Amino acid sequence: MITIGPVKSVVDENLHKVVQAIATCNCPSVAEAVMAEPSLKKEVLIRVARVLDDECSNMCKTTPPLSLFRRFLLFERELFSYSNCITELQTKCPTLYQLLWTVVTRSDKRNTVKCTSQHYPGMCMAVALVLKERNQHMTGLQTFLSLVLFNSNVQKKVLTRLNHMNVTISYTAVMKLITGISEQHKAPIEKWVNEGIIFEFVGDNVDKTVGVRDIRTDHRSTLVHMYSLLAVRARVDPPPPIFDFIPPDLTKIAVSYFLPNQADIDALRSNLQVIVSRVLADYIEVFKPQKRRVVAHIQHAHSKEMKEKSGVVVLDVLHKCETKTTDMIDIMREMISYLGDSANTCLSVGDLLTKERQDGSKRHVICSNTPSGRLDHLEPCIADWHCLLNFLMLVWKHLFKTSPRDHGTLRHLLHKIGRLPDANKPKKNLHACLDGLLTAFYGHLVEAARLELGIKSVDDFPLDSTGAKVKVKLSDVASAIVDKWTIVPEAILGQPLNDSSDGVNNYAHVLCHFAALVSEFYDGWHEGDGLRMLRCWKILMLHFFANRNTKYALESLKLQFQLASLPPDLVHQLTWGRFVNTRGGEGNNIPCDLYNEHINHLFKEIMGSNFKEQSSTRAARCVTTLSSIAETFDKLTGIHPESTSHTTSSNRDDVLSIATVVQSCDILKIKSDRSHANFPSFSASPLTSLNRQRLETWILEKTRQYTCNQHSDEQDNGDDGTGSNASESDESEL
Question: Can you point out the beta strands (E) in 113-210?
Answer without folding.
Answer: 199-210
